[in-house]
DNA sequence: CGGATCGTTGATCAACTTCAACGGTCGTGG
DNA sequence: CCACGACCGTTGAAGTTGATCAACGATCCG
């Protein structure tokens, strides 16, 4: 609750007097490790802000393996935004990677909140715009490098993240098998 | 100019009286095929809306081959959003795939426009949110399918686009070589 | 007509996956 | 508190996928 208000203030310059009321549109939840907040087939009616811990958005491919599309650490938003926008069933799961405390807002409450505080449109615009930029960058990284280079540049750029997250999840994010990641690590050490 | 006003009205429900003045913050340009609107190393100080034609965002990888990150057809926005936000040099190119007519707004003019018409924050919020959703979907497609399936599902989903765009550009978007795309097409026909 | 651009074809090669098996560690219930 | 099982990381061999390279055709445009 503190973290969300801080973030809104920092990004959109909204005064604390308002952020308090804004926060009242949310509810705070605690989730255990591996707990699911969204399952394939459900409508994703919620938008999530991670205050503490880590969530991930993933899906299960045809061969049954899981592929994670995004992680959300502290101060990141996460949702299936097509399901959230259209209220159609999702093709994704959202799951806690660690025990986490998360601020949650329903689609309807978000609309109400935006009507009451139009300045929050700017906040979300900036959030999504930033993600858009980050995605362009990620696409560049993915196409520009071999998987080996991808892993190396990723782990030197986000060393703390590589520590926090199990290797098989990192592999499922970077797009290769845990076995291959093992090979890469072996070479790197020697 | 018509197309942009229509789009703003449709997405954010802004009345024609306002969209006219909003449009005055833009200027319209014509670009020739293969003309560059942005080069690597330049600051991307502009945001582009395609009224007619097609643009692409791409970069050149270490081996010199081009990789296109996004296409923008009619009624799509395009920019390097990290460079646009931070005013730092871009790592990308923006180029016309076809002769195009494009609405252009500078970073500063966009800020002025948003101050005068705060409802446009909502418009851009919805645009970026939609892109965010589309990106999640694209990530799923890329990881869920072999390159062969990727091409087939893409070309059955966007047949008109596959017609419009040369094959080597499509290959550079899907992430493989033109030669390999050729192989796939041969198999598909027979 | 002539040159550049784009698509095609086939051979070779590297990157990465798959499968199967083993070892360590963590947490939970007895 | 110990022991068992589940989970996670590792290893190596064999098999695929897709890249690379080089050469040739076709088409478009000046």
List keywords for this structure.
homodimer; 190 residues; alpha+beta; four-stranded antiparallel beta sheet; globular; DNA-binding
Can you give a write-up of this model?
With 190 residues, the first copy, chain A, is of the alpha+beta class. Chain A is built from nine helices and eight strands. Chain A has helices at residues 2-12, 16-23, 81-86, 107-116, 119-144, 147-157, 159-164, 167-174, 178-189; strands spanning 27-31, 36-38, 46-52, 55-60, 66-72, 77-78, 93-96, 100-106. A four-stranded antiparallel beta sheet of chain A has the order 1-8-3-6. In chain A, strands 2-7-4-5 form a four-stranded antiparallel beta sheet. In chain A, a hairpin with a 5-residue loop joins strand 4 and strand 5. Chain A is globular, with a radius of gyration of 18 Å. The termini of chain A are far apart. The mean pLDDT of chain A is 95. The first copy, chain A, binds a DNA duplex (30 and 30 nucleotides) through helix 9.
What structural class is derived from the secondary structure elements of chain A?
A: alpha+beta
Which stretches of chain A of 5+ consecutive residues score pLDDT under 50? none
User: How would a crystallographer describe the biggest sheet of chain A?
Assistant: 4 strands, antiparallel
- SSE arrangement of chain A, N to C: HHEEEEEEHEEHHHHHH
Beta-strand fraction estimate of chain A: 15-25%
Question: Numbering strands along the chain, what is their spatial order in the largest sheet of chain A?
Answer: 1-8-3-6
Distance between the termini of chain A: 45 Å
Mean pLDDT of chain A, rounded to whole units?
95
Give the % helix of chain A.
40-55%
What multimeric state do the chains show?
homodimer
Count of DSSP-assigned helices of chain A: 9
Shape of chain A: globular
What is Rg of chain A? 18 Å
Tally of strands of chain A? 8
Largest chain-chain contact?
A-B, 37 and 37 residues
């Amino acid at each position: 609750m503190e973290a969300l208000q801080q973030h809104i203030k920092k990004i959109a310059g909204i005064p604390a007097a308002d952020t308090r009321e804004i926060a009242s549109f949310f509810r705070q939840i605690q989730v255990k490790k591996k707990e699911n907040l969204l399952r394939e087939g459900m409508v994703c009616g919620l938008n999530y802000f991670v205050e503490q811990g880590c969530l991930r958005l993933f899906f299960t491919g045809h061969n049954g393996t899981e592929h994670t599309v995004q992680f959300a650490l502290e101060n990141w938003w996460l949702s299936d935004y097509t399901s959230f926008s259209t209220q159609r069933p999702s093709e994704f799961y959202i799951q806690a990677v660690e025990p986490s405390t998360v601020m949650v807002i329903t689609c309807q409450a978000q609309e109400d909140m935006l009507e009451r505080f139009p300045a929050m449109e700017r906040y979300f615009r900036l959030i999504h715009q930033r993600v858009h930029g980050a995605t362009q960058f990620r696409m560049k990284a993915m196409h520009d490098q071999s998987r080996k280079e991808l892993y190396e540049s990723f782990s030197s750029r986000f060393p703390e993240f590589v520590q926090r997250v199990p290797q098989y999840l990192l592999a499922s994010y970077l797009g290769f098998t845990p076995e291959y990641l093992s090979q890469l690590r072996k070479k790197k050490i020697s």
